[in-house]
Structure formats: C-alpha cells, structure tokens
Write a structure and sequence with these properties.
It is a single chain. Helix content is 26%, strand content 33%. The protein is an alpha+beta fold and 152 residues long. The strands form 2 sheets. Strands 1, 2, 3, 4 and 5 form a 5-stranded mixed sheet that branches. A 4-stranded mixed sheet has the order 6-9-8-7, covered by helices on one side. A hairpin with a 4-residue loop joins strand 7 and strand 8.
C-alpha cells in the first residue's frame, strides 16, 4: 500500500501561480536575480532542452514556470509581490533586465507600489504596505483617485 501523502505538498499554498512563457530560462534567471527566487529542484527539461517544468520559491511562495508548447500557449500574467522595500525591489528588477511599467509611488489603498515587465512580458508589481485603510476611507479615496484619472 502506498504511503499517504498530503493533498497540498509542503511549501505550497492553496493557489500556486504557473507561468507559461516563451523563454522560460530567461524568466527563471530574472526571477533569481531580481526576486531572490530559488529553484525547489532542478527543472525538468524536454528533449529539445526547453523547460517542461520548474518550481521556484520566492519568499514563502512557490511559482511554477514552463516554456510554452503546442498544448500550453504562452500567456502573460500580472503578479503582485509584497516586499519589505518596494523601491529596492523595483531597482533590482530593472538591473536584472526588466522594463518599467510604473515607478514606485504611495497608493490610495495603503501600499507603496511599482511595477515592471520581465523578458517574457509578465508584469511583476511590488508592494510594501504602509497604511491600514478603513473600508469607508478606501471607498472615498478610490472615488477621488478615479476622478483624478478621468481629469488627466
């Protein structure tokens, strides 16, 4: 009889992002350089050398990455990472080859955030929580922010 295993493996959460990209090696290199990601184990390669499956840990979360195939097409995603210092994370990502989407700035919802695009076109937004905002205040601030966007 087989040993009983956990339905969610150690180190994983209920939801795990899985990035299907063109150029998985470039994306995993970017994740390591910019985000401090660590491979959970050696990537599984296809016979042509492309990455069939890689699992990397960023902070306390796992992210899976694969090169696109005829069965799984590449599709960009947007991920939001909480970090201790959004400005430092943003600069490190730029140094690792990302392009800027939005420079870090304090946001109405209580985070300081900024975003970049990786070599495969995925968006990585970094956030540092700087203020707890009550629901009524959040609603008021959101309305003000949308008014400013329309006026711009």
């Amino acid at each position: 009889m087989a040993a009983k295993v956990k339905p969610i493996p150690d180190g994983f959460h209920t939801v795990t992002p899985y990035l299907i990209v063109d150029g998985a090696k470039k994306v995993t290199d970017f994740m390591q350089q910019a985000l401090g990601a660590k491979h959970d184990h050696e990537p599984t390669l296809r016979p042509d050398g492309t990455i069939m499956h890689a699992t990397l840990k960023i902070g306390d979360s796992m992210v899976m990455v694969s090169d696109a195939s005829e069965h799984a097409k590449a599709m960009p995603v947007m991920l939001y990472l909480y970090v201790p210092n959004v400005d430092a994370a943003y600069q490190l990502a730029l140094k690792a080859g990302a392009t800027s989407i939005m420079e870090p700035a304090d946001q109405f919802y209580g985070d300081r955030s900024g975003g970049v695009k990786d070599p495969a076109g995925n968006s990585w937004f970094f956030g540092t929580h700087i203020e707890d905002v009550a629901p009524a205040e959040l609603k008021k601030r959101a309305a003000e922010a949308f008014k400013k966007q329309k006026a711009a």
